[in-house]
């Protein structure tokens, strides 16, 4: 069964360092998303991406965040200068239908720990 | 502002009973509503989608209702099993032109005991 894969599964970094989280969405999907979940809290939307551009972003997704689909298979989230409060689980998701009309397929997440 | 409310207290039930979870939303007019399951440390997994013109949707032991007047969805698991223990998330979906994101509620943790 097709699945969304994410790497790394866990990354530990120092405050101020740049981090890139990688995702390989399901191959025929067109809609891509990043969510994050701080330990014990809700799953929060960060950004949606369609047709090679950001379609919507949340207040959390400030200038230190960026997303890219560098080739036909990868979808990356970059955090330029990490802060302690960026420590969270980051989930990538993809869908073959527009938001809400079809299910989102989530990866297993990348746990980011900022020291 | 848009709000999605799920019971933050864990729901503990006995194996074999029916679990009922509630999702209330305000300042939304979703065309669809989705339910997901999340196990600790793992990504959410899609369970069911119900459209606004559907009152009820079933899938095996799962049943979802959608009341657009009450702005509420109920999620039922019949004949519950310990393996059903997880956090269940609801996600009212935006209408076309209403945004490009799916927003999740806080989730309700279900514990099914033997």
- Largest sheet: number of strands, sense, barrel closure of chain A: 7 strands, mixed
Order of helices and strands of chain A: EEEEEEEEEEE
Number-wise, the strands of chain B total 10
Give the strand order of the largest sheet of chain B, numbering strands 1, 2, ... along the chain.
1-3-8-7-6
CATH first level of the domain at 16-90 in chain B: Mainly Beta
Overall pLDDT confidence of chain A:
94
Q: Give the low-pLDDT segments of chain B.
A: none
Distance between the termini of chain B: 41 Å
- CATH class term of chain A: Mainly Beta
* Residue runs with pLDDT of under 50 for 5 or more positions of chain A: none
Question: What structural class results from the helix and strand content of chain B?
Answer: mainly beta
The average pLDDT score of chain B comes to 92
Number of helices of chain B: 0
Sum this structure up briefly.
Chain A has 115 residues and is mostly beta strands. Chain A has no helices and eleven strands.
Topology at a glance:
The complex is a heterodimer of chains A (115) and B (114).
Chain A: E1 5-7, E2 10-13, E3 19-24, E4 31-37, E5 44-50, E6 53-57, E7 65-68, E8 75-79, E9 88-95, E10 105-106, E11 110-114
Chain B: E1 3-6, E2 11-14, E3 19-26, E4 32-38, E5 45-51, E6 56-59, E7 62-67, E8 72-77, E9 86-93, E10 108-113
Parallel strand pairs in B: 2-10
Antiparallel strand pairs in B: 1-3, 3-8, 4-5, 4-9, 6-7, 7-8, 9-10
Walkthrough of the structure:
The complex is a heterodimer of chains A (115) and B (114). Chain A is built from no helices and 11 strands. Chain A has 115 residues and is mainly β. In chain A, strands 2, 4, 5, 6, 9, 10 and 11 form a 7-stranded mixed sheet that branches. Chain A has a 4-stranded antiparallel sheet with strand order 1-3-8-7, with no helix packed on it. In chain A, β7 and β8 (75-79) form a beta hairpin. With 114 residues, chain B is mainly beta. Chain B is built from no helices and 10 strands. The interface between A and B is medium-sized, with 30 and 28 residues.
């Amino acid at each position: 069964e097709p699945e969304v894969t994410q790497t790394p599964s866990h990354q530990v970094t120092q405050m101020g360092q740049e981090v890139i989280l990688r995702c390989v969405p399901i191959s025929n999907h067109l809609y891509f998303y990043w969510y994050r979940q701080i330990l014990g809290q809700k799953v929060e939307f960060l950004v949606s991406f369609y047709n090679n551009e950001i379609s919507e972003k949340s207040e959390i997704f400030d200038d230190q965040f960026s997303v890219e689909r560098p080739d036909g298979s990868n979808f990356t989230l970059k955090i330029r200068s990490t802060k302690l409060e960026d420590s969270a689980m980051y989930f990538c998701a993809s869908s073959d239908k527009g938001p809400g009309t079809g299910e989102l397929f989530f990866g297993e997440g990348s746990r980011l720990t900022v020291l | 502002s848009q709000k999605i409310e799920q019971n933050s207290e864990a729901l503990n039930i006995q194996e074999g009973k029916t679990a009922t979870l509630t999702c209330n939303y305000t300042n939304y007019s979703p065309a669809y509503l989705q339910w997901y399951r999340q196990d600790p440390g793992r990504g959410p997994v899609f369970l069911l989608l119900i459209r606004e013109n559907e009152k009820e949707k079933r899938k095996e032991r799962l049943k979802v209702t959608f009341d657009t007047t009450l702005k509420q969805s109920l999620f039922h698991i019949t004949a519950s099993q310990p393996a059903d223990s997880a956090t269940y998330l609801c996600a009212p979906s935006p209408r076309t032109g209403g945004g490009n994101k799916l927003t999740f509620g806080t989730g309700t943790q279900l514990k099914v005991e033997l």
